[in-house]
Amino acid sequence: MKFVNLTDPADVVSFEESLARGIGRDGNLYVPETIPQLPDSEVSRLVGADRQETAKIMLTPWVADEIPPDDLAGIIRSASNFDTPLVDVGDKKVLELFHGPTMAFKDVAARYLSAFLSYFNQKAGRRSTVLVATSGDTGGAIAHGFANIASIDLVVLYPKGRVSLLQQEQLRRVAKNVRSLEVDGDFNDCQQLVKQAFADHKLTAKLNLTSANSINIGRLLPQTTYYASLYGQLAGQTARVVVPTGNLGNLSAGLLARAMGVPIGKFVAANNMNDAVVRYLKDGNYEAQVTVRTMSNAMDVNAPNNLPRFIRLTGDNPGSLVTGVRVTDEETINTIKQVYGNTGYLLDPHTAVGWHASDTLPGDGAGDVIIATASPLKFAEEILEKIGIKVDNTQQLEELRQNPERYQEIDNSYDQLKAFLEKDLLY
């Protein structure tokens, strides 16, 4: 299996190389040269399969020529250690992806990425530095996924004042090999600093620098597993899937699973006021805009990195597969109140964006599955302030506060980021 740079057809790499580089040599994304097709017999096996069998079905076509079956089974056992159940809530179904260690869907891919990278590092006898930008949930998931892995240093950049209290503690209090940098800027600024570091080829070579954002194909492929699990839990039924959408990694993974042959219906891309996907779907054009701060902060992205992959996966007529909906904070708040009042089920702000999009856009009769991307425990302060519902996350905070803080503040400055990397990691 080979992966090709979207803008440089001569830049073709293996799965291991795509993990190690994270991004193409010109700063652009890798995509599969070809998408493997699951035979009907494998698709049938998804119905009723447990999470590890599902992962084996979905990942084997991608990595079988580089990772022997027994080694892959070990990676799956290590990474896939929590469930992603499909639950009925009112007239909808919700796929709960927040039962991992940081209570966000990104735990799924983070644990796989760390397992894959650690596996190849041990074989090659090398050490890597993982550099990642986060709008809230990615960084915490990556931090805990890579905690205490001997061959990897992790540096996470997050925007000052734009993450929840629990998200902040999950970023700052992890392990000795995890350092967090609080950037005086928004997520797009953090993302741009990471891109500048990857464009610095001397620094990249010195640190064996790679990425853990969804720009890394090693993040995207494992996310196909929960879409396959969704199909299996639906007992072979097809549904429309509503995906809260920011940087487009989650939705791109769903499209990739569908392209492999997992029978998924159409998708709804649920944006908050940072509506890059909605604007792209409307007229095929896209220009980055100033990021708007919202209650669903992990989706506060107005320059989604995965847009080129999304375009590749949806082709010339993206509207035939995906419909976009923009949701305001007021609509998010009202949705949380209404769903809680009607069902007793508490949505986090991101899942509420998806729920409102589902209500706004009538389906075709197949029924909707809402992708629940995070637990409301992560947004206790925001939910109490905006909605008046008390969420008790004191146990989670107290457990995190048993660990020392490891973070540093920097300006929105590549010189400061580079100085930190060279001072703290080049030893």
What this model shows, in words?
It is globular and about 55 Å long. It is built from 18 helices and 14 strands. The chain has helices at 15-21, 40-46, 51-63, 69-79, 106-124, 137-146, 165-172, 187-199, 201-207, 217-233, 249-260, 276-283, 307-314, 329-343, 349-360, 380-387, 394-400, 414-425; strands at residues 3-5, 8-13, 30-32, 86-89, 92-96, 128-133, 152-159, 178-183, 209-211, 240-244, 267-271, 322-326, 368-372, 407-410. With 427 residues, it is an alpha/beta fold. The strands form three sheets. A six-stranded mixed sheet has the order 4-5-13-10-11-12, sandwiched between helices. A five-stranded parallel sheet has the order 9-6-7-8-14, sandwiched between helices. Strands 2-1-3 form a three-stranded antiparallel sheet. Helix 3 (51-63) packs across helix 10 (217-233), helix 5 (106-124) runs parallel beside helix 6 (137-146) and helix 10 crosses helix 11 (249-260). Strand 7, helix 7 (165-172) and strand 8 (178-183) form a beta-alpha-beta unit. The model has no long low-confidence stretch (mean pLDDT 92).
Layout: helices, strands, pairs:
Elements: E1 3-5, E2 8-13, H1 15-21, E3 30-32, H2 40-46, H3 51-63, H4 69-79, E4 86-89, E5 92-96, H5 106-124, E6 128-133, H6 137-146, E7 152-159, H7 165-172, E8 178-183, H8 187-199, H9 201-207, E9 209-211, H10 217-233, E10 240-244, H11 249-260, E11 267-271, H12 276-283, H13 307-314, E12 322-326, H14 329-343, H15 349-360, E13 368-372, H16 380-387, H17 394-400, E14 407-410, H18 414-425
Parallel strand pairs: 5-13, 6-7, 6-9, 7-8, 8-14, 10-11, 10-13, 11-12
Antiparallel strand pairs: 1-2, 1-3, 4-5
